């Protein structure tokens, strides 16, 4: 294990069996710490072959058993890299809250420009039926006052007396910021067509992967869950990014045998801590969509949120993992805002 710490908030872990780790060139430093941090996430790993560290820079030697690491060269990066030898593998946390903040900042910038140049801002109408806690969380997270009836979403699942198909169909595909309308789902599934909107949660999962430097193309991705709102569109999207995709559902025998072959796992099941450490291939990337509340008397609210992944176990095996809370949830809200902005831009253009 190589652990690089640059500041209080930045901790980068890599698990490699042997070889060298190259830490960029002086050129990488130009963009400041944030950029260096990004580049480091993609540092090259060579097999005892120094030429793999293209531009020189800091080189760390990692022993064959991966438990001992030592610095071989003076580092030019400041603050200095600290290498902590550790027998326990700790995955890099994909900080959905921080990434969502980045996205929201980008959106705010665009909205400001839209306001200045066109005198208009995007608006979102929410139809909330019933009193589900997760729907209320989602709605308040979006925190958008409907300035105009530009776009809309209806919270799902609906109470039983309501027909989901009719409710979804009642909103035009052009305003369907949830990406649930059959026209948008159809366009997502068909090659060569582009949906007007992609469902927020799966889009958030992909965005988390992309913004964390995870390569999707050519990788084996396993999606657990096949619901219309998360699992199915997530699997389709991963395919669109050229992953080889396997879908696991409630009737799949031996799910762990399948997930153990995955480079990327997206879990959207709704069963607390279903995915255990031994379901995961060492070094795999784990995205946990699940949002389950477990009774917890030590918490003010009387419960705590956990995902569909047994986080403490998974974090010892995976190379990157999203936490719950603070992972996919905030990204879902950010993607809702992104879809709303995209829609407003489209409306203003036409
Ligand atoms: N973070 C966020 O933004 C969001 C989080 N969520 C959370 O994600 C989770 C999934 O949500 P959603 O997709 O709507 O749930 P659904 O209940 O609609 O779908 C669950 C899926 O998981 C499958 N499944 C159930 N049990 C198992 C099992 N033991 N092994 C393998 N597969 C199983 C089901 O299979 P089958 O099809 O065979 O029944 C189904 O396809 C929930 O915890 C939900 O709260 C949901 C939306 C947004
Ligand atoms: N039409 C529709 N579209 C949805 O996308 C939709 C929906 N209906 N109904 C409800 C579910 C659930 N959902 C959440 C999204 C973000 C958080 C979220 O931000 N969670 C925080 C935790 C907040 C807390 O601590 O309570 C986090 O994960 O960090 C939660 C739940 C979207 N859903």
From TrEMBL:
Single GO biological process annotation from the record: one-carbon metabolic process
Function, in words: Catalyzes the oxidation of 5,10-methylenetetrahydrofolate to 5,10-methenyltetrahydrofolate and then the hydrolysis of 5,10-methenyltetrahydrofolate to 10-formyltetrahydrofolate.
Gene3D superfamilies hit by this protein: Leucine Dehydrogenase, chain A, domain 1, NAD(P)-binding Rossmann-like Domain
Gene Ontology MF annotations: hydrolase activity; methylenetetrahydrofolate dehydrogenase (NADP+) activity
Recorded metabolic or biological pathway in which this protein acts: One-carbon metabolism; tetrahydrofolate interconversion
Organism the protein comes from: Riccia sorocarpa
Residue stretches making up the Tetrahydrofolate dehydrogenase/cyclohydrolase NAD(P)-binding domain: 199-346
Assembly and binders: Homodimer.
Residues passing through the membrane, by range: none
Pfam families: THF_DHG_CYH, THF_DHG_CYH_C
The protein's name in its UniProt record: Methenyltetrahydrofolate cyclohydrolase
Similarity section: Belongs to the tetrahydrofolate dehydrogenase/cyclohydrolase family.
